[in-house]
Fold this sequence. Notes:
The protein has 5 helices and 42 strands. By secondary structure, it is mainly beta. A hairpin with a 2-residue loop joins strand 15 and strand 16. The chain starts with 6 loop residues before the first strand and ends with a helix.
Amino acid sequence: MKLPVMALVPIMSFYACESCNNGGGIGTIITPPGGGTSQYYSELYPPDWTPDRAALGGRFLHDFSYAGYHNGEAELPSVTGPVFDVTDFGAANNDTGDQTSAFQTAIDAAEVAGGVVLVPAGTYRIDGMLRVEASNVIIRGEGTASRLNFTKVDGVGDQAHLRFVGRRTVGAAVALTSDITSRDHTLEVPSGHGLSVGDHVEIGWTITPDFVADHDMTGTWGAFNDTWQSFFQRTIVDITETASGAVITVDVPHRYDGLVRDGVAIKLRSGYLSECGLERIGLTNAHDKGDAKDNDRNHLVRMDNVRDCWVDQVQTVHVHGDDDGHVQSGGIKLFQSKSVTVRDSGFHNAQNRLERGNGYLVEVSQVSDVLIDNVEATNGRHNFIQNWGFGATGVVFKDCYSEGSRHFSGPLSWPGLPAFSEFHHSLATANLIDGGEWEDGWKAENRGEWSSGAGFSATENVFWNVGGNGKITSDQYGWGYIIGADEDMNIQISPGLGAVDGAPEDWVEEVPDNAVLTPQSLYDSQLEKRLAP
């Protein structure tokens, strides 16, 4: 059937914000015959968009569709067995007695054979810490009727009560023979010897004085200066020998230019856990608020050095304590991992929201292509946060909800100052905030001397169709993008805490009245395009 012709109307985009000038361009409105709600397409994402679309004066949108379990190319699995029921290993579900040993024994058994550690309904008191150290282990409850009550409060700083942990090992650096280019999939090496299709690799470079100066961060950045930093975690999909060496093709495009000048190189990577999951369960480690403030950067759950893993339908809960706290400090943290999905979950009510890294409910650090989908985070300090170190790239926060973030700078009883979700440290590169409701807001700016000289925390990140009543503060290094934010969002383009602004000014587009941003989800649209026959 032939569709009716719709009118294509190019318009000059407009927006409302504080302290900023229009960095946006000309979008397109498609008006249905006879009137009604029109579709608005950003100039940067027209209906015929492709990942290699020519940049408009240096401005383009990355392909974010690689985020998530198996790079978005597979649904989360429903593993049926074998099953290791914790009650068969002696665990009691009446919130009495320490069940750490029974749980860890069940986990150890699952590590040998692979399978599901089943947690039937009830509340299980865990006085110690639990660790998963092998692939193919899933911890599954029966919804929030299954609750793990972690009680340990002494010496839990920089620890996690439940931890999935691989052992990261990297090989020697193989220096590239030419620069890598953002959005390309290839890199050139002197020889393909020692590399194979299917190998996991890291691509990175040294934070040289020249690299620092290029970003106007001389005297600000310092924590990682003169060290080689991994920027992208990738998998080799092709090796082609040439007369001068070899061309390596990786599965996910580069998201920033890497220069031979800075020692851009590739390193073999091993030691990931894979196919691990945490599902359908309630968790808490909150007890006494006074104890919570004695331990910095304590997390309820961590996944370190994992790939193709997931967290699904996990909720923090209140079991005991002198308030309604769910977590002592942090909720979940993903570290040095890739291709992970966290979905349909909620992390709430941090007891410790003081400085020194507390109250981070959903945290990512040095990760590639992670999908945070339909996750709620409330009443933390930074409810959603990228933190510490270079190499956070391709992360998608899709349809998430945030409110109640507060920064407490004194005793826990003091009223808190408003806080935000944010890119916190070291040039988070090409990440996407896709829809959702942000009742507090997001920051992507030059943070100056804060957090050991965080400086420019973000570049080439996109806020797409974000909603809520919060505030977006964005002054990213180079280009940043705010497209189709809800009219109730307060958009501010400002230098933030640092003295240097991120010129050129971020690109901002507001959807005109009587039109809707199309597509509503940039991630869904790009994934559909990439996986289309």
